[in-house]
Amino acid sequence: MKYINNLFFSVKRVNNSEVSLLGLFTRVRLVDSFKRSYSNEAGSAASAPAETPVPPLVDSFGRRHNYLRISLTERCNLRCQYCMPAEGVPLSARGALLSRAELVRLARVFVAAGVDKVRLTGGEPTLRSDLADVVRELREQAGVRSVALTTNGLVLTRRLPALQRAGLAALNVSLDSLRADRYERMARRPGLARVLAGVDLALQLGYSPVKINVVLMKGFNDDEICDFVEYTRERDVEVRFIEFMPFSGNKWDDSKLVPYRAALKAAAAQHALEPAPPRPNDTATVWRVPGYRGSVGFISSMTQHFCSSCNRLRLTADGNLKVCLFGASEVSLRDSARGGASDAQLLALVRAALRNKRARHAGMENLARMENRPMILIGG
């Protein structure tokens, strides 16, 4: 810029030497043009270079992870048998749990590395009073394609309209029986009518499909398989039968397991099932009954695992990263974030944990003996 000013003053001195007005005007025009050019070049040089794209979250086996499940709370208003013991579980102190600002920040770290789908779980996520704000702040992050919710459905009729306005895109409802007495035995609380009303409201609001998660347990609700298939006749729901899985506190044993093939056989005995087209990274094998609005799926976590296509990461309510639902290892992102770690340092921790993710889970027998959190403290 000093050079430009000197050039400008030299033009003025030329003017004092009886240079023609036309020549002076031409020189001033050139100087003005040079000033603008210099200013543009200087501004470009001062601006930051284009950001380098952040590499995606890929583990040692080439699996790309674009799906983050965030547990919002350890609390629940049910006591489902496969999730926790009847007496409940010791809960973390409130200060140990992630605040909304913390979980939104941690989510942003994952989203920067290619996560585009976020699911909110618990505990029971609808017990958080700021749930709609969480949904909105996650949905507003550039790169987030979908924010979904897994809930027991007890308070959906009250909470769902606001959640939809906040940007909630998809909904899973846990429902293990269509019989009121049996539902109460499984959940150790009443509430079937409220859950069904919540599902109906979700359908009225345009959620399509509403996914219904059914944990099958031999001798308890496996005789309702066809009832659930029939539930899809007039409703745009996808009933997903889930194999019973071993977690601390749920008294797992393989005698309660209803294998995928057995459940499929029971459903096909009374309904003409046709396979639906497979969906990328889907945990469920989906079937349809011709003429029915909905569909049924089978999630075979135990007997036919889908580890080779796993794209999921989990963040617990107290801020621990779990790269595998069935793995006991965890990394505290909360402690690092509260200790002053930058986003880049947090992402490095995520990548380090992901490099240690195994090719598959340890299998039924080993999982039954492994120390792991109760499901309520992991996030469904």
UniProtKB/TrEMBL annotation:
<dbReference type="GO" id="GO:0061798">
    <property type="term" value="F:GTP 3',8'-cyclase activity"/>
</dbReference>
<keyword id="KW-0411">Iron-sulfur</keyword>
<dbReference type="InterPro" id="IPR007197">
    <property type="entry name" value="rSAM"/>
</dbReference>
<dbReference type="InterPro" id="IPR040064">
    <property type="entry name" value="MoaA-like"/>
</dbReference>
<dbReference type="Pfam" id="PF04055">
    <property type="entry name" value="Radical_SAM"/>
</dbReference>
<dbReference type="InterPro" id="IPR058240">
    <property type="entry name" value="rSAM_sf"/>
</dbReference>
<comment type="pathway">
    <text>Cofactor biosynthesis; molybdopterin biosynthesis.</text>
</comment>
<keyword id="KW-0408">Iron</keyword>
<keyword id="KW-0949">S-adenosyl-L-methionine</keyword>
<keyword id="KW-0547">Nucleotide-binding</keyword>
<keyword id="KW-0342">GTP-binding</keyword>
<keyword id="KW-0479">Metal-binding</keyword>
<dbReference type="GO" id="GO:0046872">
    <property type="term" value="F:metal ion binding"/>
</dbReference>
<dbReference type="GO" id="GO:0006777">
    <property type="term" value="P:Mo-molybdopterin cofactor biosynthetic process"/>
</dbReference>
<dbReference type="InterPro" id="IPR050105">
    <property type="entry name" value="MoCo_biosynth_MoaA/MoaC"/>
</dbReference>
<feature type="domain" description="Radical SAM core">
    <location>
        <begin position="60"/>
        <end position="282"/>
    </location>
</feature>
<dbReference type="InterPro" id="IPR013785">
    <property type="entry name" value="Aldolase_TIM"/>
</dbReference>
<dbReference type="GO" id="GO:0005525">
    <property type="term" value="F:GTP binding"/>
</dbReference>
<keyword id="KW-0456">Lyase</keyword>
<dbReference type="GO" id="GO:0061799">
    <property type="term" value="F:cyclic pyranopterin monophosphate synthase activity"/>
</dbReference>
<dbReference type="GO" id="GO:0051539">
    <property type="term" value="F:4 iron, 4 sulfur cluster binding"/>
</dbReference>
<dbReference type="InterPro" id="IPR006638">
    <property type="entry name" value="Elp3/MiaA/NifB-like_rSAM"/>
</dbReference>
<keyword id="KW-0004">4Fe-4S</keyword>
<keyword id="KW-0501">Molybdenum cofactor biosynthesis</keyword>
<protein>
    <recommendedName>
        <fullName>GTP 3',8-cyclase</fullName>
        <ecNumber>4.1.99.22</ecNumber>
    </recommendedName>
</protein>
<dbReference type="InterPro" id="IPR010505">
    <property type="entry name" value="MoaA_twitch"/>
</dbReference>
<dbReference type="InterPro" id="IPR000385">
    <property type="entry name" value="MoaA_NifB_PqqE_Fe-S-bd_CS"/>
</dbReference>
<dbReference type="InterPro" id="IPR013483">
    <property type="entry name" value="MoaA"/>
</dbReference>
<dbReference type="Pfam" id="PF06463">
    <property type="entry name" value="Mob_synth_C"/>
</dbReference>
